[in-house]
Amino acid sequence: MTSRERVLKAFHKMDGKPDRPPLQFDLCRQLTDHFGKKLGIEPDYSESYYEDLTYRISANEIRTKMGSDCIVVGGTMAADFEIKTVRENVTLNEFGMEMKPGSLYVDVVKCPLVEASSVEDVENYNFPDPYAPGRFEKAKRDIEKYGKDYFVIGDVELSLFEMAWHLTGMTEYMIPMAMGEEWIEFLNDKVESWTLGMAKQLVELGVDALWFGEDLGTQTSMLISPDMWREKFKPRYQRMITELKKINPEVMIIMHSDGAVAPLLDDFIEMGIEVYNPVQPNVPGSDPAELVKKYGGKINFFGGIDQQDLLPSGDVEALKKDIEMRASIMAKEGGYLMAPAHIIQSDVAPETVEAMISIIKNL
Question: With 345 labelled, which of 106, 125, 130, 247 sits at a CA distance of 20 to 30 A?
Answer without folding.
Answer: 130
